[in-house]
């Protein structure tokens, strides 16, 4: 037995080095906890990043959806506004004996279509004073009612006449090219008719305050020397020589009653009486040129307006001339502003049925 080699007995390290083993285990556990903490932070950052991307994508989709919807409503409102003008032309051309025929008298008309509200008003241009053809005393009266004194109103009137006439001869109180140069005006008289009311701002003596006061009552499209008493605004009627505010207000009250009766019973067609005590030189029956304004309000409150000025054809088979076509900026005043709007069918009636 003495020849056998005896192996040493293996003793667990925990028994030999108990303190070192415990320290090693504690170190490994701490390292594991540190690694787990770093991994948790990375996971949180990744989740936050993915969440941000998702929210950004969702927000962009929402914005794109709203933009798409707004574009659709804009296109819808524009189409309805232009359709309203086309319908007005159709309705204004129906036979005069038709009790449902639309009148170019400024009465507000309204109807609903596809969740949008369409407001329309048609008014003959004879409700306004024509810058090119009006009786000079009518223009002078309009300037005076807007705040100009007699001398200033005369200067402006003659400056307008010098602007329009084909020569360079200056009227006693007027203004020609040399006067505009002396006043450092960039625009000189065109020696031709006004092509738009806004051109009046270039005339010497016309202030911005005066223009703003008279612009709603002017036109260049009626081609009439007078105005329609049945359609003209109070400011226009007061511009007629020798009329008083009392007479005009009494006339307007009578005119309103007639409009209300006709609105209640379209078959009556009571004529509007003339303004008493005024010569017929300042009045016309109508011009055949009509200003049509359409204001559309969509289901979400988006608004779009269109204004057109058309010259009606001489016959029902003729085509109308479009003199102006633009976005609606300033709604026009009418002789029936204090009356409720007339509710009409959203579609054109054909033979008693809606088309």
CA radius of gyration is: 40 Å
Count every helix, treating DSSP H or I runs of 4 or more residues as helices: 8
User: Low-confidence runs (pLDDT<50, min 5 residues)?
Assistant: 349-355
Shape estimate: elongated
Helix-and-strand structural type: alpha+beta
**Percent range for helical residues?**
25-40%
What fraction strand? Answer: 5-15%
Largest sheet: 6 strands, mixed
Question: What do the pLDDT scores average to?
Answer: 82
The count of DSSP E runs of length 2 or more, i.e. the number of strands, is 10
| Adjacency order of strands in the biggest sheet | 7-6-5-2-1-8
Euclidean distance between termini CA atoms: 126 Å
What string gives the helices and strands in order? Answer: HHEEEHHHHEHHEEEEEE
Explained architecture:
By secondary structure, the protein is an alpha+beta fold. Helices cover 40% and strands 14% of the residues. Helix 3 crosses helix 4. The chain is elongated, with a radius of gyration of 40 Å. The C terminus is likely disordered.
Give the secondary structure arrangement, pairings included.
Blueprint (H helix, E strand, L loop, with lengths): L12 H4 L1 H75 L16 E5 L2 E9 L4 E2 L5 H10 L4 H15 L12 H6 L25 H7 L3 E2 L14 H4 L7 H20 L24 E9 L5 E9 L9 E7 L14 E2 L5 E2 L2 E2 L1
Parallel strand pairs: 1-8, 3-4
Antiparallel strand pairs: 1-2, 2-5, 5-6, 6-7, 9-10
Helix pairs in contact: 3-4
